[in-house]
Amino acid sequence: MKNIVLFGPPGVGKGTQANFLRDLYQLIHISTGDVFRYNIKNNTALGILAKSYMDNGDLVPDEVTINMLEAEVDKNSNANGFIFDGFPRTTSQATALDAFLNAKNAPIKAMIALEVPQEILVERLVNRGLTSDRPDDQNEEKIRHRFNEYKTKTAVLIDYYTKQNKFHSVNGVGSLEEITKRLQKVLDAL
Ligand code: ADP
After folding, report:
1. Topology of 3-181 in CATH?
2. Please, what is the Cα angle at 156 between 151 and 161, to 5 degrees?
3. Is 124 annotated in the active site?
4. Can you give the pLDDT at residue 57?
5. Is 28 helix (H, G, I), strand (E, B) or coil?
6. Is 128 part of the annotated catalytic residue set?
7. How far apart are CA 83 and CA 101, in angstroms?
8. pLDDT tens digits for the chain (190 residues)?
9. Where do the domains of the chain lie?
10. Do residues 136 and 146 touch, judged by C-beta distance below 8 A?
């Protein structure tokens, strides 16, 4: 079972690359951002709760996010493995994920971080905001706040997975195909 955390700051290309990897390795792709947006669209209790946080670029509280993620995993009990995209984003989420997956004898194999300079990311997100209806992409201040959330709460996970010898870094600048090839090289060596 190949359980992979695809990691990196907002706009780095996790969702795009996760879709390619899902097809190449027959994995289940879980994007916590997508699950939240689906719930917002359908006006569920979870969506209503998550919306105010997301619209401001804040992280959704851990307990809510962890429960949702575990439910998504349990919906796919026959999976070959999972690509986690946008989760974990805090140390509490990472320890909860380890406990949850270790109890299933299906631990995380690797955390793969996509690396792109921040100024390129801000530009990508501002551009995405022109065509998407995502409220959190609509102004630069919110985008910068999301980077701040990443730096203060999420980036520490690089140490967390390095200590477990699971950290890998991949250059996220280049064509989509080039980046997929770089990711495949890491995955194939696991
Ligand atoms: P991006 O990484 O480009 O900002 P995502 O779709 O991954 O986009 O996340 C959008 C928003 O969803 C986040 O800013 C946050 O509010 C919420 N979110 C997604 N995943 C998590 C998580 N693991 N923990 C808390 N909040 C999350």
Report:
1. Rossmann fold (3.40.50)
2. 140
3. no
4. 94
5. strand
6. yes
7. 13
8. 789 999 999 999 999 999 999 999 999 999 999 999 999 999 999 999 999 999 999 999 999 999 999 999 999 989 999 999 999 999 999 999 999 999 999 999 999 999 999 999 999 999 999 998 889 999 899 999 999 999 999 999 999 999 999 999 999 999 999 999 999 999 999 9
9. 3-181
10. yes
Atom of ligand 1 nearest to the CA of 31: 7
- CA 120 to mean position of chain CA atoms: 19
* Residue 89 annotated as catalytic: yes
Q: How far is CA 72 from the centre of its chain?
A: 14
Q: Which residues line ligand 1 (CB under 6 A)?
A: 10-11, 32-33, 36, 53-54, 57-60, 65, 86-87, 89, 93, 136, 146
Angstrom distances, CA of residue 97 to CA of 4, 8, 122, 130 = 12, 17, 29, 35
Question: Is the four-CA dihedral 103, 104, 106, 108 of positive or negative sign?
Answer: negative
Q: Which of 128, 144, 153, 166 is catalytic?
A: 128
Please tell me the distance between residue 57's alpha carbon and the centre of ligand 1 in angstroms: 8
CA distance 57 to 129: 13
